[in-house]
Amino acid sequence: MNVKTKQLMNRILLWILILCMAVWMLLPFYWAVNSSLKSENQLQMMPATFAPRDTSTQQVFFYTRNYASVLTNKAFVRGMLNSAMVAVSVTVLALAIGAFAGFALGKLRYRGKTATMYTILAMTMFPQIAVLSGLYAIITGLQLAAIPSLMITYLLFSLPFTAWVLTSFFRELPMEIMQSAQVDGASPFQTFYLILLPLTAPALATTGLLTFIGAWNEYLFALTFTSVEPDARTLPVIIANFPAQFSQQVPFGEIMAAGIIASIPLIVLVFLFQRRIVAGLTAGAVKG
Amino acid sequence: MAKSKASLRNLAKIEHRVAYWFLSPTFVIMLAIAIYPLLSVVYNSFTNNVFASSQPTTFVQFNNYCSLLNLTFKEVPPKVDKATGKPAIDPQTGKTQYQSAVSVLPRQPYRYKQAFQVDVAGKRYVIGATDPEFIRAVWDTMVFAVVTVVLELVFGIIVALIINANFIGRGFMRAIILVPWAIPTAVSSQMWAYMLQPNRTGFFNTLFWHLGLGDGQMPFLSDPAYQLPAMILIDVWKTTPFMALLMLAGLQLIPADIYEAANVDGASAVRQFFQLTLPLLRGTIAVALVFRTLDALRVFDLFQIVLGQARFSMASYTYYQLIQNRAMGYSSASSVVIFVVLSIFAVTYMYTLGISSDEC
Questions:
Q1: CA A136/CA B234 separation, integer angstroms
Q2: What is the mean pLDDT of chain A?
Q3: How far is B182 from chain A (nearest CA, A)?
Q4: Which of A39, A105, B163, B282 fits a 20 to 30 Å CA distance from A119?
């Protein structure tokens, strides 16, 4: 076998692997799309069809009422608004507060820095389940509404993460920029706000994206804190406990449609910002 | 000269103060939503607090922990055949018949129930626990964590090697592998639960039936034998991309010229992988392993959504005790147990990672 055929074989093998990988990664998504386009009767067909088909003629037939019914489902639409509200506020809060911490950790010299660094890193791994009953008691004790509670408690995982990732970005900014600002008489806050913060805009975008995705997907706190306040439920809680509106059966077609609608914002983000997300994810976990 | 020294010290002092001001919001928030609740959880774990009940809360010392963690290990004696005085043997299967496990488990001071039965070296043992559900949840979570993390590491490295190769559409491919990671776990759990339906309306039963495997009625989610493998399958699908990205970042840190040197020396691709790539990835792998183990040990969404109360993870058991049973004290104790287990891993992780800071 000469070198050329060997290279060609390698190429073919690579593409087979790529194809297998893509199929495997997208398989549940394909099945969800397929099922979301089936009516109750089509879903009951055995064996299940790999494309939506008419129950009697076996012609391919797309049923779109699931989407219509999900989008007119009040609970679902409210859930979407709740999720958007919570995720956006958490992202803004975490970035604003985390950037302060990141600046101090990445650029300022002070006593006790190593200890604070370790504290922040430990906090990025803080298990939510450990404080679930404590937070629940506080929230019911203060009679806080569920949505503001979620906005505050999501900082538990998003704030240490943003602070940690932004620290490494701040550290990479050249010291001279800061020093020249100080020579020009800028106060520390002005140096931070006017000079350094604009330079970290790409990092802010990256961490913001990840925080948004994390908050959009969060389930444990959302499930617990909205247990007595159904109007405040976020999308994951609604999709996991989808209310059967009309039929006694679990409305799988609608659940799949709802799941796809809830995933679309994330899939769009992933395709638009693939590079940024990858950079941010690995910055949080791998020492560069 | 003395004056400038003093002003330098002054500047340093100002910098300290500024740093503390900039850090204070983060620490105040963490105090309010992490440290204070954690302390209240620890406090509650020593009480019999039941949420929203009229029963007065009293201090119960370590009772909650005892009920959660009490374990006993007993041999189950075989039934004795009255006629021969030898162990009774089932005439149909040829296996030894054993007495009921309940009869050997202690009832005082705590009542033990059976958590597991194991046959070792021709003898049968029973592991009894005062809360067998929690012990099973701990065991299941451990098994889940170990198996998923190992599988994710292996697949993660494979995927990372693929997307590190040069091909048209590589960026697109990297976006595709992010899809499982980005979809909310609540959504992917529902998608998988539907694919694993116990009849031919489900994808897997249909597929296996078309392939002539199984009868098209495999109860993936209700048969205990399939439950954990199903959870592992879903988690591997969901988390391999994350692992792959960590591995990819590690791969990209390896300088390309060492491979050129290996090529010149005529080392095969397989040999290059095991003797160059893998050793050089060691640091990345260590970090990823601990990081993922931490994540896997606190698995909640997947178990709660797909299996509900049929089978628990440590976290979903804690949630169940808090919300369904309103057992604030008991669920707090189980939270503390989880926290301690995870802390051990977290400390290991920080030790592996190390922190370099330019402290003055």
A1: 29
A2: 87
A3: 6
A4: B282
Is the same domain home to B180 and B252? Answer: yes
Chain B residues in contact with A136 by the CB 8 A cut-off are 51, 322
> For an interface test with B, which of A34, A118, A133, A226 has the most B Cβ atoms less than 10 Å from its Cβ?
A133
Contact A163, B26 (CB under 8 A): yes
Q: Which domain holds residue B119?
A: 71-130
- Per-residue pLDDT at A248: 60
* Angle (nearest 5°) at CA B231 between B228 and B234: 150
What single-letter DSSP state applies at residue A288?
A: -
Contact B206 A45 (CB under 8 A): no
Query: Do B214 and B106 lie in a common domain?
Result: no
Helices (H), chain B: 2-30, 36-44, 63-69, 132-164, 170-182, 185-195, 203-210, 224-253, 257-264, 269-272, 278-280, 282-297, 301-306, 314-323, 328-353
Mean pLDDT of chain B: 85
* pLDDT of residue B360 exceeding 50: no
pLDDT, one tens digit per residue, over A246-259 is 556 678 888 999 99
The string of pLDDT tens digits covering residues B33-74 is 999 999 999 999 998 888 777 777 788 888 888 888 888 888
- State residue A243's pLDDT score: 66
Contact B350 A122 (CB under 8 A): yes
Do B237 and B262 reside in the same domain of the chain? Answer: yes
B358:A152 CB<8 A: no
The confidence score (pLDDT) of residue B235 equals: 95
Of B107, B130, B153, the residue at which a domain comes to its end is B130
Nearest to B314 by CA among B138, B149, B143, B147: B138
> Taking CA atoms, what residue in A is nearest to B28?
A97
Q: Do B19 and A252 touch (CB under 8 A)?
A: no
Which residues lie across from B71 on neighbouring strands? B129
Residue B180's SS3 state is: helix
Chain B residues in contact with A47 by the CB 8 A cut-off are 200, 205-206, 209-210, 216
Token couple for A76 = 């679902």
Is residue A205's pLDDT more than 70?
Answer: yes
- B150 and B84 within one domain: no
pLDDT of residue A224: 92
A92 vs A191, residue with greater confidence: A92
> Which residues, at least 6 apart from B111, have a Cβ–Cβ distance to it below 8 Å?
B130
* Interchain contact, A130 vs B339, CB within 8 Å: yes
Whether residues A155 and B29 touch (CB distance < 8 A) is answered with: yes
Query: Chain B: residue nearest A32 by CA?
Result: B191
Contact criterion met (CB below 8 Å) for B322 and A139: no
B214 within domain boundaries:
yes
By residue count, chain A amounts to: 288
Q: Give how far Cα B259 sits from Cα of A55, B246, B254, B276, B284, Å.
A: 57, 21, 9, 8, 19
Interface probe, candidates B9, B14, B191, chain A, greatest A C-beta count within 10 A: B191
CATH number, domain containing residue B262: 1.10.3720.10
pTM of the model: 0.89
**Could you give phi then psi for residue B354, rounded to 5 degrees?**
70, 155
In chain B, what residues touch A25 (CB-CB under 8 Å)?
Answer: 176-177, 179-180, 237, 241
The answer to whether A109 and A117 are in contact (CB under 8 A) is no
Measured distance between the N- and C-terminal CA atoms of chain B, rounded to whole angstroms: 22
Of B84, B103, B130, which marks where a domain is finished? B130
